[in-house]
Amino acid sequence: MTDYCIEIENITKRFAQHVAVRNLSLHVPKGSVYGLLGPNGAGKTTTIRMMLDIIAPDEGTIRILGVPFNDKHIPNRIGYLPEERGLYRKMQVRRILRFLAELKGMKGAVADARITEWLERLDLKTAEKDWGLAKIDELSRGMQQKVQFIGTLLHDPDLVILDEPFSGLDPINSQALKDAVVDLKRRGKTVIFSTHLMDNAERLCDSVCIIARGEKVLDGPIARIKAEHGTRNIALSLDGETSESVAEVLADRSLVQRVDDSNRYFEIELAPGADSQRLLRRIVDSGATIQRFELVQPSLHQIFLERVGAAGIESGMAGHG
Ligand SMILES: Nc1ncnc2c1ncn2[C@@H]1O[C@H](COP(=O)(O)OP(=O)(O)OP(=O)(O)O)[C@@H](O)[C@H]1O
Ligand SMILES: [Mg+2]
Q1: pTM of the model
Q2: What tens digit of pLDDT does each residue of 197-236 get?
Q3: Do residues 98 and 115 touch, judged by C-beta distance below 8 A?
Q4: pLDDT at residue 319 tops 50
Q5: Residue nearest to atom 3 of ligand 1 (CA)
Q6: 229 C-alpha to center of ligand 1: Å?
């Protein structure tokens, strides 16, 4: 038994002279929420389409749920929200959802019950209004996206792949989507989604892979990535005056590399190899009353900017030629 839901080894995809994905390997742990991050044109959608056997890689291998990606039983275990949205505009919401469910082999009565459940859950069916009875083109764009999201999940897939699921959603609908993703994870499902919104990824993902110019920049559990990029900073607030003995601790260069002293608030950069807990003990021992002692790490956004940055995007442009 593999612990990975998706195993991608060294895939490459070329479109004419342009290499959209280059020698990419990634491993998505089962039961995790995984973010595929990268700037526009990085190769996220191309990678997702290869996972789904919509386009074939020129090189490399992909295994999904423990079997090769083109196994015939795989599609019914996957739910896919494509980047390009679009439902038959003249069709009724319920009919379209039933049609999508039947494509995945669901029986009508089961499908209908689930459709009702989901419409209620995503506020498309309330006491006042049942949008299930409306036609697609009567719905706002965000609502249509919710309907398409429901269509992705009706057959209760083990693996859910969402390409830019947050684009075009307002904060309330984004939150509803995040809640649904968290719930899927609780139920043991694996969710992979692409985005360039680092905030959503940071809050939602267990692991991420950042790609730029078709190549992997970094990947792994968020906690590890953040720890590796930690500037080893500590936010410290003290109650009352800073005593001589605290000042002495903060001046100890074996513990503290640099300190930004704003009277009662300090931003401390640990010395190389220094242990934050030892610093904490020394401050406590000095008799100070601590209000806040917190290891602060860079956000995923900062890491993204640092690792991908303008240079990454520029050389990506150069790669187009
Ligand atoms: N069918 C295709 N034919 C030619 N080039 C393509 C094709 N599909 C993708 N590309 C190119 O491959 C690169 C990666 O595209 P892709 O759609 O995978 O990026 P993305 O990371 O999903 O970007 P976005 O955030 O804008 O959705 C781009 O330079 C794109 O122009
Ligand atoms: Mg895309």
Answers
A1: 0.81
A2: 888 899 999 999 999 999 999 999 999 998 887 767 888 9
A3: yes
A4: no
A5: 15
A6: 29
